[in-house]
Design a protein that fits this description.
Chorismate synthase, AroC fold; 8 helices; about 375 residues; five-stranded antiparallel β-sheet; homotetramer; alpha+beta
């Protein structure tokens, strides 16, 4: 399916960094969902670069919905969102040496040089604005069913944020923060480290931790379309994500079964687990506990330090100094994208499980 | 697609732990691929439990291919493999308390109690035998195109194996070992730790590291069907896998861009990278370097220590002591499954890129 | 997806005419559906050749379900059905001249000569036995929701059967008949014509007409996954089907809009149409009226008259006299297959619309 | 996949009759294909209503491509085309009685009244402009590989056009005609009949016949993804198409096998058939002969004659007189849409068979 994701609720992405418009088509949404344009705008604002720790490129992100919404609600037919690219400065970019850590060389190989290379073209993080707009509609709809999503910068430049301790209040707090941390002193330390990296012409990476509350039990498949498999498939589309773990994740390697297993207890007539090392998923299927997952975001590959590379056109070794506007870290911006793709993937699983109208159905 | 994975090369799984037969259907294989039944048998042997560190359940794994092979080669039409379950002792299992860390409760919720609960039913690791048989055919075919896959137990019970240093020789070595480590002294220490866990009635987890050599550049899609996304989607079907990382993976969190970026240099007229922190993938697309990824395998949830849990049928709290035959670790057995699902997922991406016959085409 | 059809309810086919077993995997069935093995057997009997108007090949069709059923009900996990091939006489077949009207030449071209050519291999009508077994389970489940399917031989060898006039009684009658016609005198005339064709070494074609009663309104999509599109996609897999029409079908060409439009009237508080030229579908979506469609089945290509053809292996012109066992008509056997694939396709659309459990849910 | 069609080459549609813009996203096109905007414009012109036999609505169809094209060629990444709706007169439409033969009632049922009902909303034939624009790019690309597509009005209002007799010249002729017939005297008679129907406030239907030349042999799958199945799935999205037949189609019902079978002969070292009753497809797979298929297009449901219907909102019987701008026939406009969806579906099958770059590869 290539640039389309999902089965019952699908999202199709298009656009390039320096093209006239980028966009997304979301299909399969239940009819009658309220579409809150202010909320979409607020999510796009959170994705946008801010201050000294981000690229100087400023986009107004004046999205417009051209189909699938009528009188403020989803119609159930494909919803297309377009976002114009206004502040493009193509002069900054020319086909030249492949930027290490970027898709320049792989795009050149796959597309035989026909790709739009300007600003990374279709590979640009810019395209995530369309994902965020699409995701915002779904995030709002999930809220209507009591399903809440939030992500914090769990680690950046070697500094750890505080863990989730107060759900769902933590999520509410995060969703209003431009730099999403639970402990603001740690957030300040991270931002200082990002600025220092920027000053050196370098960049830093980090880890995002996401919680999804209110996910019904019994969603997902035992093989292949496991909740982990479907979510990770989507999450690796968030640019720079190179690892995804659920629950205890890689820490399971050093745990024993007696510690790793989550004991079950009855609570209010429902089974719950007293720990959540499995991140709300057993055998690929949601168990009703919070979904917990973490994504690692690699350091922004665009750095201004000199780098060794090749020019694919000429097949010659060369040295690269990247100019233009770049982020010394993207982990704090990526969290909005992580929320968005997670929401889209979960909406698809829920629609497959409970039917196409479920997301707009009254609470049980 | 549920229990089917893939687009051009697909695999469909079926079967339960205590049913008469399990199996897989592989469709979309290029016609004319040699089918080496001895190789399939050898892969099944490597998956089978061995000695004191594994379950006492012994299956002969006498597979038979009932379609899709004619005169020793693939026909190009669906290839069905069946493996009988012989050594089933259903008396060991009854519907009872949900085993913590297992799919018992989620299966009960999803299937409303109609699931075959015996031995974990369709969720059993037993089903992976069919995946391994299917994967063996594809692994052989990939070899024919110079694409080699191998996995070692990179960490188990807190003990690290040596890293890959001598590719492709390391892979050849691993593929003949029942307990796949690069440093056999470390392997012995791991097995000792597994036995000690077993003696305590407990279990341990670990990390698998996989290398794929010879993967052509230019495979994968920029969004959604990234190489990472497609591989991880498949890998999370390997029972107990709870995290997947590519290249430096979670270590990217503490790296700077200047270190994380892989410099490019020309070698034999082709661009190569002088490091491989990105694990052979940039922008979702293979770059021609070795694919490198790691999966964490949680400790086997079946332990004989007493555990707190609930009985979903009665909705009551209870205490569970698991009897029956179980593995104190599965990381060493899972590596064959990891190879298999990776091979199936890559074969699909390759067929989409280069056409349905590519896998059987003569070398360029 | 190749030999897999469907999205939420899927069917995967495998097997060859002269292999050891053929089979189907049905995935995504709601858990808890009764599986009536006698009903499956009775449907297989109706598909089987009977008497002088069919091939002398006799198969017992002793199917076995190896997964997905537990204590007489579907589990919700993949259901695999296997049917052994017993009465194979491979001596009748060798790779030789391409049989005109068959897939011999196209299979040779697509699979480069690696296909199992014996008895048509994977292209054989024999494979439909697995479809019929799979379909039987779904047909029964649809009955449980008040959705009834039946097909009659509307035309054969130039003879028309009576039209549907008494639904649902007509369907009940058809489902018990080995040669499904509404007017038995027409049925006798058809059978006589088939025997006469057989005596001449020739074969005849026909038209099947299907009615589906009780289909809920609001199922299907406006573009691409229209009810017509999804059904026809599946129906063209019934061997020898070369045309599919809905409602008035090709007769629309000579109608005016004032006649073709189906007037709407309220009946028991629901809108109904007073005619049904649109076959129960408007804009790709079911309208609650009976689904009506017709499939043309071409004359069996296996005839014993001498035919001009080529030998793909040698690239030479030649003359062919087909020996072996063949049907002088298949239209009367194909009707069971039409019912089956229609049931599978509709079950998929219904599950996508109303959720994975709908088929097993209690009546509203 | 709902409003997305295809696997390797996909098309996603969006938009409503009276929304600001409609559009399509085509993904999976080979990189480097020339994009001829004049040709796209000329196809859109052929789709547009013309003269007295069509609606008075005039759209300039000023499409713009916002992604996926760079320096005049496809990039290989998603290509989005947008077409603004300019001449919308929403005042003509209000939610009211369901128009018989239209999707009004089914849309209301499926979308619970949240659909954009103005001018048929997402169900409007207007949306086909986006399909035509998308199809034009693919038609041009297929031409580059020697694959030619053309459709004529084979029958309209009871008048038959001449059959194809001079291929490929016939196709070239058709592609330049606003009203595509092979015999212009028949075309004039059809147009007269259409005008007469319009004068009566009524409408007429017809049959479209399509030929595809140069299709390589060996494309398509034996089950489910047969060429017939995939094409028909797409063709039933052309509004008003209610039947699709291949080769002799429904005429097979009255043929004998000895007449229906197409004899094979060697010609220029390739097997060809001396007749083409199978329409270029055997066993679901192309045989290298021209693909031939016919679609029936029902009479336009929008007529100005008084009709009996219901108002779904009130649940009351009522009488409807449709005002606004409507086509007394759409068969002549639909042919461009048929070409387009056929091209998209075939491009997908070809890319699956021969690889993602095939369409842009130099001739063999």
């Amino acid at each position: 399916m290539k640039n389309t994701f999902g089965t019952s609720v699908t999202v199709t992405l298009f656009g390039e960094s320096h093209g006239p418009e980028i966009g997304a088509v979301v299909d399969g949404l239940a009819p009658g969902l309220p579409v809150d344009e202010e909320f979409i705008a607020s999510r796009l604002t959170l994705r946008r670069p801010a201050g000294r720790i981000s690229t100087a490129r400023q986009e107004e992100d004046a999205f417009r919905i051209v189909s699938g919404v009528f009188e403020g609600r989803t119609t159930g037919t494909p919803l297309a969102i377009l976002i114009p690219n206004r502040d493009t400065r193509s002069g900054d970019y020319q086909r030249g040496p492949a930027r290490p850590g970027h898709a320049d060389y792989t795009a050149y190989t796959k597309y035989h040089g026909f790709e739009d290379y300007r600003g990374g073209g279709h590979f640009s993080g810019r395209i995530t604005a369309a994902l965020v707009a699409a995701g915002a509609i779904v995030i709002r709809a999930l809220q209507g069913k009591g399903i809440l999503i939030g992500t914090h910068v769990a680690r950046c430049a070697g500094i750890d944020d505080a863990p989730f301790t107060d759900l769902p209040a933590d999520l509410e707090k995060l969703n209003s923060l431009p730099f999403a941390v639970l402990d603001e002193t740690k957030g300040q330390a991270m931002r200082d480290a990002i600025e220092q990296a920027a000053a050196r012409g370098d960049s830093v990476g980090g880890i995002l931790e996401t919680a999804v509350l209110g996910m019904p039990a019994g969603v997902g498949e035992p093989w292949f379309d496991t909740v982990e498999g479907v979510l990770s498939h989507a999450l690796f589309s968030v640019p720079a994500v190179k690892g995804v773990e659920f629950g205890a994740g890689f820490a399971f390697a050093d745990m024993t079964g007696s510690r790793a297993n989550d004991p079950l207890r009855m609570k209010d007539s429902h089974p719950v687990t007293t720990s959540n090392h499995n991140g709300g998923i057993n055998g690929g299927i949601s168990n009703g506990m919070p979904l917990l997952f973490r994504c690692v975001v690699k350091p922004t590959p665009s750095i201004s330090l000199e780098q060794q590379t090749v020019n694919p056109l000429t097949g010659e070794n060369t040295v690269l100094e990247i100019r233009g506007r770049h982020d010394p870290a993207i982990v704090h911006r990526a969290r909005i994208v992580v929320d968005s793709v997670a929401a889209l993937a979960l909406a698809d699983l829920l629609a497959l499980r409970f039917g196409a109208d479920w997301l707009a159905s009254p609470d049980d």
